[in-house]
Amino acid sequence: MLQTTVIALFMGFWASLYLLDAFLKTHQGFSRSYINFLSRTGLSVSIAQLRWYTPYFNRLFVRIGSWKTHFLKVWFTCGVCFGLVAMLVSVFLLSLMVYNTLCQKPIEQQILTPVMPGVNLPSNQIGYYLLTLFTCGVLHEAGHAVAAVREQVRVNGFGVFIFILYPGAFVDLYTEHLQVISPLRQLRIYCAGVWHNFVIVVVAIFYLLCLPWFLLPFYSVGSGVIVTSVLENSAVSGPRGLSNGDCITNVGQCRVNHVNDWIRCISSSMVAPSDGYCMALDLIQQQDVSLPSYTTPAGNVECCGNTSNTHLCFFYHSKLSASLNHACLPARTITDRPPCHLQSDCRIPGGDAVCVMPSLDNSTKLLRILHHDKPPLLFLGHPLDLHYSLTLSNYWPKALIIPLDLPYVLETFCKYLISLSGALAILNVVPCYALDGQWILLSFLELSLRSTVPNPETRGLIYTCLLLMGTILLSLNIFIAMWMLFMR
């Protein structure tokens, strides 16, 4: 229902914007001033798209493209090598995807996965996704512009756009200049965009690996994980649950120093039985408030009824009885006792002690979460529910003015840069209509076949066939990806 409402709002917004634009352009009283406004600002409206175009950045591109021209020549030549190798790799991977699908072989991970907000992209990640697309698009087109200036091709202007929800950028090059330069110089321009996407991936990986050292003056690490957000209406939210800024140090007996430790502790708690606790028999008899017990459909014994929020049914072995004993005991009092896994772990001088274990089904666990300066949190449920209810960070701010979630924001943005910029680099080099790969293929064929295939019509036929094959290949992969996303 929410997705339908959001789609309806977007459709209504773009329809209203388009109709307003058409009305202002045709109205006798507003058309002249409105068209002048669009001309001055560089704005334009089309179906589901808003554009902004300006020559304002041309001087910046000229200044960068004229700086250390020999270095830039080597830089963009490296981009040509990367672009040609990436084209072969992308064609191979996409062909492998189609082959495995036709042969009905199991595919562990898709090569091409469409990202759809509200479908496979969480709503709280949309901001990162859109910002990454905009950043990658601007730097991609800036690469084309700087390479064009380096190769003596005039840049007419630069622009950005929003298509439905997705942002992007474009650069306007002088076509006549572009057509008369050599194929190698054309390749430097056409490959510059995907080359910059690859550089973004390398820089983001380096920054992500060095992030702990960059943040070391402002954050401390290694003494627990910090809660940066808690899922609303989850089992650990509320006044008695966890809150932003809490530092988790233990999950039961499992020590948590880093987020990787947290994941390891949650994983081990799913397969290991819940911790037991040592308690004297006389205390059990004093605190036991058992009701008539019964066996649940899951196979565990329930002796506290369904109304108790503070007590839990435990079982234990006793020397006085050969059968299994059950007792309804206060959960918080019991979990404050020394932990145990076997009867032999409990030794109390001058009295009999037993190891009491929670009576739960296989998927439900009783976890005791330790966090600084607060009473332990008792979680009863599936460990994955606990895991997905929290967003955690390794970084504890050294001062109150330092943002708690800044490391998470930087880390998440770097991960999006790596995944999306890498995907754009591989996708754009596919020899397909309307992608950079179309022009890269054309320039490469002119460069490599001009001497061996002197007939321009023959070279054009080879180009058309390869371009058609690449377009079909990419279309098949998009169809397969959409099918697996919506029909699985």
TrEMBL record:
<keyword id="KW-1133">Transmembrane helix</keyword>
<dbReference type="GO" id="GO:0016020">
    <property type="term" value="C:membrane"/>
</dbReference>
<feature type="transmembrane region" description="Helical">
    <location>
        <begin position="416"/>
        <end position="441"/>
    </location>
</feature>
<keyword id="KW-0472">Membrane</keyword>
<dbReference type="GO" id="GO:1905897">
    <property type="term" value="P:regulation of response to endoplasmic reticulum stress"/>
</dbReference>
<feature type="transmembrane region" description="Helical">
    <location>
        <begin position="155"/>
        <end position="175"/>
    </location>
</feature>
<dbReference type="InterPro" id="IPR001193">
    <property type="entry name" value="MBTPS2"/>
</dbReference>
<feature type="transmembrane region" description="Helical">
    <location>
        <begin position="461"/>
        <end position="486"/>
    </location>
</feature>
<comment type="function">
    <text>Zinc metalloprotease that mediates intramembrane proteolysis of proteins such as ATF6, ATF6B, SREBF1/SREBP1 and SREBF2/SREBP2. Catalyzes the second step in the proteolytic activation of the sterol regulatory element-binding proteins (SREBPs) SREBF1/SREBP1 and SREBF2/SREBP2: cleaves SREBPs within the first transmembrane segment, thereby releasing the N-terminal segment with a portion of the transmembrane segment attached. Mature N-terminal SREBP fragments shuttle to the nucleus and activate gene transcription.</text>
</comment>
<dbReference type="GO" id="GO:0031293">
    <property type="term" value="P:membrane protein intracellular domain proteolysis"/>
</dbReference>
<dbReference type="GO" id="GO:0004222">
    <property type="term" value="F:metalloendopeptidase activity"/>
</dbReference>
<dbReference type="Pfam" id="PF02163">
    <property type="entry name" value="Peptidase_M50"/>
</dbReference>
<comment type="similarity">
    <text>Belongs to the peptidase M50A family.</text>
</comment>
<protein>
    <recommendedName>
        <fullName>Membrane-bound transcription factor site-2 protease</fullName>
        <ecNumber>3.4.24.85</ecNumber>
    </recommendedName>
</protein>
<feature type="transmembrane region" description="Helical">
    <location>
        <begin position="187"/>
        <end position="207"/>
    </location>
</feature>
<dbReference type="GO" id="GO:0005737">
    <property type="term" value="C:cytoplasm"/>
</dbReference>
<feature type="transmembrane region" description="Helical">
    <location>
        <begin position="126"/>
        <end position="149"/>
    </location>
</feature>
<feature type="domain" description="Peptidase M50">
    <location>
        <begin position="129"/>
        <end position="465"/>
    </location>
</feature>
<dbReference type="InterPro" id="IPR036034">
    <property type="entry name" value="PDZ_sf"/>
</dbReference>
<dbReference type="GO" id="GO:0012505">
    <property type="term" value="C:endomembrane system"/>
</dbReference>
<keyword id="KW-0812">Transmembrane</keyword>
<dbReference type="InterPro" id="IPR008915">
    <property type="entry name" value="Peptidase_M50"/>
</dbReference>
<feature type="transmembrane region" description="Helical">
    <location>
        <begin position="6"/>
        <end position="24"/>
    </location>
</feature>
<feature type="transmembrane region" description="Helical">
    <location>
        <begin position="74"/>
        <end position="99"/>
    </location>
</feature>
